[in-house]
Amino acid sequence: MLSTRFSENRKRRGGLQQVLIAAVTLIAVAVAIFLSGRTYRETRKMAIEQFHQQELILARSVAIGIRGFIEYLEDDLLALSGFPVVQRMEPGILKTMKVLFMGIHLQTSYRRLDKDGILRFIYHNKGWRKELIGRDYSKEAYFQKVRETGNVVISGLVTNEIGERRIRVVRPVYIEGKKGTREFNGVIIGSFDPSTLNDLFIAPIVAGKSGYAWLLNGYGTILAHYEDGFIGRNAFEVRVERNPDISCKAIDQIQGRMMAGEEGVGRYVSGWHRGQTGKIDKLMAYTPVRINDHTWSVAVCAPVSEVEETIRVITRSNLYTLGFVILALVLGGVLLFISSYRWSRSLEREVASRTRELKKTRDYLDNLIRYANAPIIVWDPENRVTIFNEAFEKMSGRSEAEMMGKPVELLFPEESRPESVQKILSASKGEYWQTVEIPILRKDGEIRIGLWNSANIYDEDEKLLATVAQGQDMTEQKRAEKALKQSESQYRLMAENVTDIIWTTDVNLRFTYISHSVERMLGYSVEEAMAQTLEDVLTPASLEVAMKAFAEGMAAEEMAAEEMEQKDLSRSRSVELESYCKDGSTVWTEVKVTGLRDPGGRLVGLLGVTRDVSERKGAEESLRQSETQLRQSQKMEAVGTLAGGVAHDFNNILAVIRGNADLALMSIEKDHPLNKYLDEITKSSTRAANLIRQLLLFSRRQPMEMSPLALNSLIQNLVKMLRRLIGEDITLDLNLDPETSTVEGDAGTIEQVIMNLAVNARDAMPEGGEISITTRNVHIDDEYCKTCTYARPGKFVHISFQDRGMGMDQAVIDRIFDPFFTTKEAGKGTGLGLSVVYGIVKQHKGWINVESSPGSGAIFHVYLPAISMKAEEKVKEPVSLEAFIGKGERILLMEDDKALRETSEKLLSDNGYTIFVAGNVQEAFHLFEREGGQFDLIFCDVVLPDGTGPKLVEELLKLRPGIGVLFTSGYVGEKSAWSAIKKAGFPYLQKPYSLPDLLKAVKNALKKK
User: Fold this and answer.
1) pLDDT tens-digit series, residues 173-222
2) Is the dihedral of CA 976, 978, 979, 983 positive or negative?
3) Which of 45, 300, 485, 1001 is buried most deeply by CB count within 10 Å?
4) Model pTM?
5) How far is CA 285 from CA 211, 254, 288, 356, 422, in A?
6) Are 799 and 774 in contact (CB under 8 A)?
């Protein structure tokens, strides 16, 4: 029993011992697990916080770089908008844009839009870009916003004309108005590819092993991303498209805070990462990029798995530790120490690895600043230099080693040091420099002028860490301005006493100097001339010529400079311009212009010499008019020669045709079938005769009988004929001034003018319309003669013919009076109507001109000299042909054309006359002698094969005075022959003639016997 109890007690104690061992073991294991879990959580928390801080530092560095990039571009736009040549879009604007473009990234461009949003200039201007000039961008949101607010605007992500993505920085451009106010004159745009931001700031960022950065604008659009497919997409939408099964609530909330301009860290689940898919837990840090009134945000993210990789290593170590703890119950605390030691070393290695990665990022940012093109300097809150990049070394002539830790004020010249130090202190207190001018003292003593902007860098507690300043060297530009002032004084001294006007302008074509000779040439004082613009100085036509010549000249010089890599600094151009004088008159000048350049070869203005060439221009104009008149005279002479060559023989032929037709009509009854054919022969011969008459009228070879004419009566007498000519679908409107003066003219040819102009107006209105004929008295003065060179002063009668037809362009107007020129179809016009009108008006010592434009009808103006004599009214009484029948009178007919001689003989003999015919002078003398001079009338052709009619008649009348004389001809070739006929008062019958005309002429000649 005792042994059993002892055994039971031993078992009980063994059980208790086992329970105690088990309990202690379980407690030790629980404690170990608890400590391991706590260690894991603390380690995980610390690792994530450290990773978040690293991401935040990277995001801030990217934000500083992007802000600096945009501000640098804004500064260039500000500089451009300050140049007058850019403000007014004048010659030289591309050169100015090119100069400021040199320091800009190659994927950037400049554009200049006018106040209406029309693209006027673009740089760099190559390839497809030339085709954009003149395109309307007024509907673009960024243009409208700049015009409304007057502030700098940064556009969202836009797609340009060839499908490239662009971000545009837009600054307004103002000019000074006439009342001294600022007037909006368009915008200047800096446009760059968002891939530039990606290449410079986003793509180089790597957080952890595979983390990356991306840039979001205030509208939720991704502007930069290592994966090009994301750029330009809405960040809220693209994630749902990639993996719709994953909730984006967490990242959407984070992006909302980013768009609100907040800074922070977060965690979210993504559906992809650098080729991986599925649910990927990520850590992210974000910080705002504030640019004017825009807020962008930079985010840096990386998978949580990369952070937890370290934690897993630690976790495995903890598991080992847990095993060692359990073994420590048996083996003791040695293994626990080893396990703890291993855990500690692992943590140290992880921290060291993260530190190296952080240093790599810092080195990248340091290089980004150090090797930038623009001078950059960084100083601490004590104003000691901490960063001094290579561009600043070149500008100051000092090395970074010399300036590290030294006060910033050592860089300033002594005389301007207090002012510059004050600006440094204001920047450190938070004042932002947009453009501040601070001179820099080089090590060699030279002073360089720089334009600077600045920004402060703060830690998480808003404590100032450093101030960054970025500059632009403006020394050469300042020197150029000084050199220009010196050159102006030299030009002024040289130009004081010359007779020509010497002047200079700036690149905006505003006068900067005018010599005193302007008062002698144009009547203006120097002060008055300096206050004028080219619009005030030049007539509108000359202003257009000048602006075109200046623009082409400047463009040619720039192109030559680019292609030949050298400039022709002595190149000049000449142009003739008409300038206004002070008294309102104008003077023709020859202007020679040469470009003014600074020492660097940049165009800064124009030098011009203006010379009075009025006398030369007058001589040239007189010569031109003389040449024109000579050509017209030669043209008329040629037509006259042609007409004269054919008129005599052709009229003889027509006279035979007409005479035989009359004989045939006399031989048959009126109802005979051949009557209508003979009548057509008569009409055709009349038309042919009129055509020859028109040729002779135009060439002034047709003799005219001048007498006082009442134009109103002459026109009214023609109304019935005119209405028959123009047709029923055209209305004739007469506006005849009853006070219209008398003119001296040939009634027949003036009637020809009226009919030809009426027919011409009719032909211009094939669909019908109205012709207005107006007469009035006018007085032509010297002012009118200046605009119409062929006019002359005096009193004239003005006749106008106006139609509402198709009108004419200038090319037709220039040739409208040329012989044989017509706009009608072939066979529908001879081209002589208006030529005849022109010739007749000229013979009457007047002139004719025309006003017309396509679709507006035409007005022909005829001017004839007025006379004081009154016109005699002639009343025509109808006379029967029976009164002209002969009574056996003896007529000596002299005609060299056999057919016409026989026809005329037949016509006269059949109507009661006794006819004796001769074919030449010799036959006429023989016949006259044979008949003893017993003739009542000599009917003689003016042109004979062996002499002239007037000379023959003169000899015959000497033999027997008192015989009646009647001359006839198809064309009087010699003026002397016609003069002799008129002087003697002999009647004249024009060939071809009809039977009634012949009989009347013979009867009248017999009465004058």
Assistant:
1) 998 877 778 889 999 998 888 888 888 888 888 877 888 898 988 888 88
2) positive
3) 300
4) 0.34
5) 11, 10, 11, 19, 37
6) yes
